Every structure is written in C-alpha cells, then in structure tokens.
Write the structure tokens for this entry.
Amino acid sequence: MPGPVQNRRAFLAATAGAGCCALLGCGGGSNSAANSAANSAPLTTPNDTSQVPTAQPPAGATEVTQLSALAQAAVPSLQSRPETFLSAYAQVGSGEAATPLAYISALFGTPFATLTDPGAVAIFASAVACASAPIGATPLAPMSATLGQLLTSQALACGHACKLTTLLSLLGYPGMAPPDLTGAAASQPTIHFVVWHTDVPLNTGVHSQLMISNVLENAYLLLDPLYAYAVRIPFVGAGPQPGLEVIVNAATMMQTPIPPENLVFFDPSRNGTTSLMLSTIISGAMGPQYIQHDAIWGSEGWDTVMSQSFLTWQ
C-alpha cells in the first residue's frame, strides 16, 4: 500500500497537471475568454534583452556550468513525463558524488555546505526551468498553466519559470508549500513566491523570484530560475523576527551587503542577465520596501493559492 509521501506526490502530480496551482509572475499571458478573469491582472513582459550582453558575475561569485548541462539533458524526458522529475534528480552527480545533495553542495561551494536535500531539489528544479525555454513573452497564462504546458512552452517569463520550479520542487517535498509555518514545525522548509514591484533596483520592472526557508543553516535561499542564479542570504543581527513573513525577513536581511561568494550563477550562457542585476542583488540595495504585497497578485496571493491546495497534505 502506498505510503503518505507517495500519496502526496501522486496527488500533486495529478493536480499540478490539471492546473489547480496557479501563480502570478511578470511576463505576459493570454487573456482570452478561455482564461478566468483572474488571469487578466496587469502583468509586464520581460525587458527587451536583445542588446544586453551576457552577464559577468561580480568578482568572487561562483560560476558553474555543470548543473545547467545536467538540466538540459533531463528536459526532453521531463517534457513527455514530468512525473519522472525525482528520477532525473537522483541522477545528478551520479558517479561523482555519493548523493545529488553532496554534488550540488560541492559545486556551489563552501557557503552552501549546509544545504539540505529539499534545497538541492529546488536548485535543480530551478536549473530545469531555466533550461526548458528561453526568456520571452508567451501566450501561456501563468494563472492556469499546467506543469506539462510550462515544460513545453516556447518561452518563459519570470512568473512561469517560478511556477515551474515550484511545482517540480513540490513533487519531491509537498510539505514545502506555504502558508508561513502555520501549524508546522518552525524548522520545516517552505518555498515562497516573492514579487518585486516595478521600482525594484534590478532593472527588471516587476519581477518574481523564489525564497526558501530552512534549507541552509542561518540563511535563506533565493532562486531566480529565469536568470539562472542562486543566492545564500545570511541572517544578520538577531536573525528572523517572529511574526514576520519569510519574504519580509529575507528582504530585510538583503539590506546588508552579501559577500559575493554567496552568489552562484549556474548558466553563464543565459542571455539577458545583466551585471547590474547580479551586483545589485548582493549590494544591500534590496529591501522589504520593494515587495509587492497583494492578496491576489502579490506574494500573499501565492501563499493563499498554495495553502488552499496543499495545507491538508503537509
């Protein structure tokens, strides 16, 4: 008889494919009559990257190519059978490390030495999302796109890439779904959709990223699956403040400059990632004032939708 984890994974695979989990992101989506009114929220398409040079990470940052290559190799089989994501993850670093976690931790360097398996799964999911399609506008509405549709889309904007990363991550760890530790152990990993509003100093306009708690010791993990980088956000001062959302606590920590070795750029060929963005994300220029708070379209909307789908399955 299948155990609870297998049952949750089967449930998630079915519901994700049916499009019950929907997220907002920057990037255009179809607003045809076939989509719900919720999909007509004002979204932005990615900035024109045709004249933007390939990024050069800040001095001291880690640049790797192996993870991108592994993700690219996995994409074709995942496009036909998304539910095999865990099998693809299990092959990461095969022959070079004892486990995928050990391989990714070593690849990313000393700041990621305390990475846990849920964090490694999310990092690989982020690499898969990045490898699955180029940056660009798509008619696929992020609020109703299914896992299969996202994996086979001809282009992805930030919201689509974050949604794809999240759904793949939750295939391995459904308990990572929000809400913010409500009724859950304080040490439970959770994955959060953070929406930065149009004035964020990343030169992106409205932009979506993922913030993950409790997968690194004394730090948050930020993932940008559209622009192919990960950041370890060290705790500063007294650490996370009780009663504040994960994304607010993390963004507060980002007001302190982050040592560049905490930044890993895992697909150097990704067009459109600017040196300005990579420098800014660790410069201390970010902060909670740039979070887009909205119960439908902002970061809170993400937690609400995901908690409705997964609260009883954690």
